Amino acid sequence: MASFKNVYESWKKNQIQFWKIQSEDIVWKTKPSKILDDTNAPFYKWFPEATLNTSYNAIDRHVIAGRGEQDAIIYDSPITNVKRKISYSQLQYQVSQFAGALLNQGVKKGDRVIIYMPMIPEAIVSMLACARIGAVHSVVFGGFASNELAIRIDDCKPKIIISASCGHEPNKIIEYKPLLNKAIEIAKHKVNKCIIFQRDALKVDLDTNQDIDWFDAIKDVPLANPIEVSATDPLYILYTSGTTGKPKGVVRDNGGHAVSLKWSMKNIYNVEVGDVYWAASDIGWVVGHSYIVYAPLFHGCTTVLFEGKPIGTPDAGTFWRIISEYKVKVLFTAPTALRAIKKDDPDGKFIKNFDLTNFKTLFLAGERADPDTVLWLENKLKIPVIDNWWQTETGWPIAANPLGIEILPIKIGSPTLAMPGYDVQVLSEHGTEVSPGTLGAVAIKLPLPPGSFPTLWNADNRYIESYLSTFPGYYETGDAGYQDEDGYLYIMSRTDDVINVAGHRLSTGAMEEAVSNHADVAECAVVGVLDNLKGQVPLGLVCLNNGCNKTNEVVCKEIIDLVRAQIGPVAAFKSVAVVSALPKTRSGKILRATIRKIVDKVDWEMPATVDNPLVFDEIRDAIKPLGY
Ligand code: COA
Ligand code: AMP
Question: 215 and 349 in one domain?
Fold first, then answer.
C-alpha cells in the first residue's frame, strides 16, 4: 500500500505527471494533451485543450457501465415526510429532459442560470441539466433574502431563474415566490423567465408573462444530449462572502473540477463505486456542490439529499436513522450540526437505537472542529472522526486525513496535512515562512490545483487584489493558523471580516452595510463573537444620530429586522447594542478585534493608540442585557 508521504512527494516532484495520471479517471471527449497552461500566470489553466461534459461523467458513464439501476440520489425529507429514490437511469432521463426544457427556453452554452431552490431533487436535476448543455449555474442559498439574490442577479446576469414555490424550515414555510419577485424587481439586470417547481405544501400563482411551471417546461421537449465543453469553460459560479457587501463570484471550471473531486472520493473519503455517501449540508454552499452533487456522482456513489435539520425534525436521532436506513458509509457535515445533536442528546441515547455497522467514517468541515465535540463523537460512535479544511475557493479539501491512502495519526484540533496539489505555508506579515508552532497567515504556493477557482466571475482584477497581492506567488487563504513539527495544520481564525455562523460563511462588512442603511444609525461595527452552538454569531454595536427620538429598544429591533430583510435569516443577526461611540485608533480605525475580546471575555490589552478608552466600559455595560 502506498504511503501518503510517497503520494505527496510524487506530486511535489512532478505535479504535471501527477494530475495527468489522475485525469485518466475522467471520461473526456478530447483527452488532455497539455496538463497545465501557465503562460498567462497567475491565471492558470488546467487541461487547456481537453473537452468533456460534466453531466456525462456524473450520470451517463455509470448507465453505460451497467449501473443504471443503482440509486443515484436518495431524497429523505423528514420535514415533509417524503422519501424518494432516483436511479442513475431515472436521473439521466430527468436531467436530459430538463436540459431539453432549458434549451427550449433559449438557454445556450455559456448562459448563466440562477437556481434558488430548497433541498429537493429538482435542484440537483437543474444543476446537472445546466452542466449538460454547458450553461453556467449559480445556486443561491434559500436563507438569503431578496437583496442578496438581486446582487447575484446583477453580477452574473442570468438568462433564466429556476425556483420553487416554497422551502420548509421547522414549523414554517418559506415562500420563495415573493422573495424571488422582489429580487427581480430590485435587480437592474432584467430577468424575464423563471421556471417554478410547485411543491405540495404551497401552490403559488404564476405570472404568465414571466413564470413557467416546471411540468409545463418539460412537456414534450426533446431529451438533450450532453454537449462537449472545454475543460476550462465555467461549470458554475458560487458566490461567497468577502470583506465587503459585494460577494465574490467564485468560478469553477469543468475539467479540473471533475479530476480533483473524483480523486478526492477514493483518496480522501475512502469510498468506492456503489457506496452510500451523505454530505449533510445544503446545495447552496460549496460542500453541497462538491459533495452532495458532483463528487459522489462522478464516483458512482449513491448520494443522500436530506431536507431537514440535525435536531427537531423530529429529534436528535434523525442523522443516525438515515445512516442506518440507507447504510451510509460516510457522513460529512459541519461540527455545528453535531454540537446541536450533542446538546439535545448528551448521552447519545438515540445513537444506541440504530444499527450503524455500515457507518465507517465521519468527516467534519466548514468550521474549526472543536475538540469537545470531536471527543464526544469518537466516544459515542467509535469510528474515526476526521476534520478537513477547505474553502469555497478551492472546491475540495486543502488539508485532510487521506483515508483512502492511509490513515494518518489523528491530532484533535488539526485537519491533518496538506493534500497533493497544495503547498501550504504559514507566512509572517513580511511573507516569510514562520517556524513550526508560530501563528501566521496560511497561504498556498501557486498554482492552485485543478478544481480550485481559476478566477472570480468577471473580476480578474479583484481575484488578484483579494487573493494574490499580499504574498506574491501565493494564494492568501484568509485563514490564520500554524503548523506543528510534523507539518500538521491548525486553522485558528480568519484574518479578515468573514465570520462562520453555524458553518455558514458570512461577511460582517456586509452586515455593517445593512445596519448603516438604517436612518438613525450614525456608525456601527459588527463583530463575530463566540457561540457554543453556532461557533460564532454576529453582534452589532451602533451609534445613533443626534435627534433620534425612538427608544434604543425600538431602533435595535428595526435594525435586526433590516439585516434580516437585506441579507436574510441565515445571518442570524439577533444582537445589537447602542453605545455613544465606537472604540477607535487615533487614525479612526474601529478596534473590532478588541471589541470581540471584550465580548468573548478573553484577556485583552488596551491598544496603545486608542482614541477613547472609556468607551470600553460603556460597551461592557451595553452588552450585558444581551447575555454577554
Ligand atoms: N431557507 C430559508 N431560511 C433558512 C434556510 C433556508 N434554506 N436555512 C436556514 N434558514 C433560516 C432558519 O429558519 C433560521 O431562521 P429564524 O431566525 O427565523 O429561526 C435562520 O435561517 C438561521 O438558521 P440556522 O443557521 O439553520 O439556525 P437554526 O438555529 O435554525 O439551527 C443548527 C441551528 C446548528 C441546527 C443549524 O444551523 C444546522 O443544521 N447547521 C448545519 C449547517 C451546515 O450544514 N452547514 C454547511 C456547511 S458544511
Ligand atoms: P466556506 O468558503 O464557506 O467553505 O468557508 C471557508 C472557511 O471556513 C475557511 O476559510 C475557514 O475559515 C473555515 N473552515 C472551513 N473548514 C474548516 C476547518 N476544518 N477548520 C477550521 N476552519 C474551517
Answer: yes
Nearest ligand to the CA atom of 336: 1
The answer to whether position 420 is within a domain reads no
For the chain, what is the domain count?
Answer: 2
Q: Are residues 237 and 200 in the same domain?
A: yes
Assess contact for 444 and 398: CB atoms under 8 A. Answer: yes
For the stretch 235-279, pLDDT in tens is 999 999 887 778 999 999 999 999 999 999 999 999 999 999 999
Pocket of ligand 2 (CB under 6 A): 240, 285-286, 365-369, 387-389, 391-392, 415, 477-479, 491, 494, 500, 505
Pocket-testing residue among 79, 307, 309, 498, ligand 1, by greatest number of atoms within 8 A of Cβ = 309
CATH number for the domain including 38?
3.40.50.12780
* Predicted local distance difference test score (pLDDT) of residue 604: 78
Q: Whose alpha carbon is nearest atom 32 of ligand 1?
A: 337
Instruction: Please state whether the peptide bond connecting residue 569 to the residue before it is cis, i.e. omega within 30 degrees of 0.
Output: no
| pLDDT tops 80 at residue 607 | no
Q: Which atom of ligand 1 sits closest to the CA of residue 118?
A: 7
Report the pLDDT averaged over residues 307-315.
97
| Digit-coded pLDDT (tens) for 80-125 | 999 999 999 999 999 999 999 999 999 999 999 999 999 999 999 9
- CATH of residue 589's domain is 3.30.300.30
Distance CA 353, CA 291 (A): 27
pTM above 0.90, yes or no: yes
| Confidence at residue 602, expressed as pLDDT on a 0 to 100 scale | 87
Centre of ligand 1 to C-alpha 569, Å, is: 8
Pairwise pLDDT comparison (588 vs 139), residue with the higher score = 139
Ligand nearest the Cα of residue 503 is 1
43 with 139, same domain?
A: yes
How long is the chain? 628
pLDDT at 467: 97
Protein residues whose CB sits closer than 6 Å to any atom of ligand 1:
142-143, 167, 169, 174, 280-282, 285, 287, 309-311, 333-334, 336-337, 340, 365-366, 502-504, 533, 569-570, 572
Identify the helix (H) or strand (E) that includes residue 37: strand 36-37
Show the domain range for 550: 504-626
State the greatest distance between any 2 C-alpha atoms of the chain, in Å, as a whole number.
74
Same domain, 466 and 544: no
Same domain, 442 and 510: no
Query: Domain check: are 15 and 71 in the same one?
Result: yes
CA 393 – CA 383 distance, rounded (Å)? 30
Q: Can you tell me which atom of ligand 2 is nearest the CA of 477?
A: 10
Q: Judge whether 572 lies within some domain.
A: yes
Evaluate whether residue 544 is within a structural domain. Answer: yes
Query: Within a domain: residue 585?
Result: yes
Helices and strands of the chain, counted as H and E runs: 21, 31
| Distances in whole angstroms, Cα of residue 152 to Cα of each of 12, 37, 238, 260, 434 | 38, 30, 9, 27, 39
